Amino acid sequence: MAIELKDVSFAYPNGYVANEGLNLVIKDGELLSIVGQNGAGKTTAVKLMNGLNKPSKGDVLVDGVNTKEKSCAWISKTVGYVFQNPDDQIFNSTALAEIEYMPRYMKLSEEEVKKRSSRAIEMTGISHYLKMNPLDIPYAIRKFVAIAAIIATQPKYLILDEPTAGQDKRGNEILENIIKELKRDGTGVIAITHDMDFVAKNFPRIVAMAHKNIIADGTAKEIFWNSAIVEESRIKKPQIAQVAERLNLPGSILFREELTNALR
Amino acid sequence: MVVAEFKNVNYKYPLTDEYALKEINFQFEEGKFYGLIGENGGGKTTLCNLIRGLIPHFYNGELEGSAKVFGTDIKEHNVEELAVKIGYVFQNPFNQMSGIKSTVFEEVAMGLENLGVEKNEIIRKVEDVLELLGIEDLMTKNPNELSGGQRQRVAFASIIVMDNDMLVIDEPTSQLDPQGTENVFEIIRKLKQAGKTIILVEHKIDLIAEYCDEIIVMEKGQIVCSGETKDILSRMELLDYGALIPQVAVWGHEMGGAGMPLPEIPITVEQAVRLVRERGRMTDGN
Amino acid sequence: MEKSFIDSFREYQKFDNWFINFNPLSKLNILLALGFSSMLLNNWKYGFSLCILFCILAFAVGRGKQFMKPFSVIVLIFGFFTLVIRQFSVSGTTVLFELFGVLPVTKEALINGLNTASYLLGFSGAIVLFFVTTEMRDLMYALEKKGVSHEISYIVLASFQTIIDLKKNTDLIMESQKARGIETEGNVLNRIKAFFPILGPLVLGAISSTEEKSIAMDARAFSVKCGHTFLRELRPVPLPEKVVVILTDICFVLLVVFKIYQVFG
């Protein structure tokens, strides 16, 4: 089963075309990151995957179901989506209530609600904040409350829109842990981010977007060591790769250990 | 010259038990560019609020110790005037537009109108600042219809035009892409050249390493260490404080561990490249 | 292009024609006087002539479309309803014809209805014409010059952008809630269930952005107490314009006096 984009274009009601001719297959349990400049069509593309945007041309299939035939809320049981700004999502008066809201809305048994919520809380490391009013929780941690609330619905694929924005070292570590844990549970993760070190470290597959379309699809080494792609999608190479490039070292180096070994 | 001086400052926000700032002792010097880094919730924004007089004038709470800005105790400042003397740019570009001006030119001019500056003087200053920041092409655009990155540059222009000597900049790039981030840092570089005192809160440690003169690291409301950028950002213990150091610095330490120490720890790509070459020459010489 | 744009601020703002060039307060004065005069006279011939005058004026100054759009709706709704209601509330004797063969339409009720409709339309026409020929920022500029505080001016002007922003935010929050699985479409129950998840973030977002905005505006000297200058300036009111305004007001006062005399005399 998979998310499949088949020659998909999308235009907003005002006529602005944001995606043109997208073709992409995301398999079960895959970790994929979408990179590229703002305005390249990244967010529009992921909104096509959960039915928030319905294609103007072409088809999007989620586990074989055409998104045109179902509501976004229905598809969200399979494809969860965490928006960039947690404040667009959170409305309950405690973090715990926010996390338990969707499992309850889905009419799961109380036992299942507790089980799913505690798994989500454990993954996101927010157990200290459960009784707090979300407004009193620092913004960066609020992002984890929002993520936990979606994880608790146990979607098969989880979309994260700029999860790294504004995160500190600990926040990035928690995110890495979330991705690992989801991977272990067999959940696919699709993340939009501008943090290239984070991408190189955590995502085996990268999709680079520019001018409304996908311009490259490959591993971190293939993407970051192809200067045409880096240039066109206006991404910033990880620091270690920059050093290796300046020193003309072979082997598409991305990580510190590789750089050390190359200099032995 | 010292522009802001804090001695044994402790501060608690209203209705909270924990100190948001603990034992702050620090002097900010004129014309220096400070990078304020550390964990979220560590007190970075609170310190910015104190410097700008929002504490104690806007947020009450308990303030202890001596906090002086421009030689005057923070409590005695006229907060409206202090807000203008110390420019402020923050994270969300949308909330920094006035929402009442229909072109970028007028948006940038608003602060000067409020100060009662003569019209031809306003026009001259706005033209200058748009040129300085390279955003002349935006001047006839509606500020409410720009992208986040463009708005953030307009926000900078709207503050810089008032010719403040000191700027507090709180996470200006966290909602921007690499191109937008680069544009913002280009602006900050120009401000530094113009001799402004700058206090920048930022998570993008590579850029901090490249631009700042001094680093202040905060954790749990305290300043845990501070000093010259090169000295601070090459320390591994920053990671224990919940702060980041550049990847090349971590790598520099690992090179030492692998028995191939570099002459010093690099904090930028430039330095790393230079140091590898130097080391190459040294080993060749042996 | 940019040079001439910048230079446009050095002089007083120029508008495409004489009527729009009128100072907003002069315009408001004249149009209100005309609007109230149609109320005082309560005569359909005068009222409708005034409406026709407004239409001609709107087209003559290039705001015909903008004027007709709201005005025609007002004409249809107010005009039609007043005529119908008056048929029921005013008992007349001169039956003109019988609607559907049963409802009598009388001359007295018709004229009464026309009179009422004409003064409602005359008055609303004046208001609509004012707003399609005056930019809000120019009105606020003129009011600020007369001593209205710039805080009030800011609130009025910012409210337009605030409404646009609120709409955008609502859309975003709706998407966010849909994306987590809350049905916002379909039956009434679904919609009611989706109410809090949308309203909550909207209100909280508005509060926090207001706080941020006020801090941002203070950094731009919004609260500094001193005289302001204006980058964008309207011309001072020229003598002929003053004369027109004063003459209009004299006529209006005479009309009021005449009306009082008619009622009590």
Automatic annotation (TrEMBL), chain A:
It comes from the Bacteria. SUPFAM superfamilies: P-loop containing nucleoside triphosphate hydrolases. The lineage of its organism: Bacteria, Bacillati, Bacillota, Clostridia, Lachnospirales. It comes from Faecalicatena orotica. One of its GO terms (molecular function) is ATP binding. The keyword Nucleotide-binding applies. One of its GO terms (cellular component) is ATP-binding cassette (ABC) transporter complex. Residues 3-236 form the ABC transporter domain. Keywords: ATP-binding, Cell membrane, Membrane, Nucleotide-binding, Translocase, Transport. CDD domains: ABC_cobalt_CbiO_domain1. The keyword Membrane applies. It is a peripheral membrane protein. PANTHER family: ENERGY-COUPLING FACTOR TRANSPORTER ATP-BINDING PROTEIN ECFA1, HEAVY METAL TRANSPORTER. This is Energy-coupling factor transport system ATP-binding protein.
TrEMBL record, chain B:
The keyword Membrane applies. This is Energy-coupling factor transport system ATP-binding protein. PROSITE patterns: ABC_TRANSPORTER_1, ABC_TRANSPORTER_2. It is found in: Cell membrane. GO terms for cellular component: ATP-binding cassette (ABC) transporter complex. InterPro entries: AAA+_ATPase, ABC_transporter-like_ATP-bd, ABC_transporter-like_CS, ABC_transpr_CbiO/EcfA_su, ECF_ABC_transporter_ATP-bd, P-loop_NTPase. Its main location: membrane. PANTHER family: ABC TRANSPORTER ATP-BINDING PROTEIN MA_1418-RELATED (PTHR43553:SF21), HEAVY METAL TRANSPORTER (PTHR43553). Pfam families: ABC_tran (PF00005). It is a peripheral membrane protein. GO terms for molecular function: ATP binding; ATP hydrolysis activity; ATPase-coupled transmembrane transporter activity. Residues 4-245 form the ABC transporter domain.
UniProtKB/TrEMBL annotation, chain C:
The keyword Membrane applies. Keywords: Cell membrane, Membrane, Transmembrane, Transmembrane helix. It holds the Pfam family CbiQ. The chain crosses the membrane at residues 20-40, 46-64, 71-89, 109-132, 243-264. It is a multi-pass membrane protein. InterPro entries: ABC/ECF_trnsptr_transmembrane (IPR003339), ECF_transporter_component (IPR051611). GO terms for cellular component: plasma membrane. It comes from the Bacteria. It is found in: Membrane. The keyword Transmembrane applies. Its main location: membrane. This is Cobalt/nickel transport system permease protein/energy-coupling factor transport system permease protein. It comes from Faecalicatena orotica.
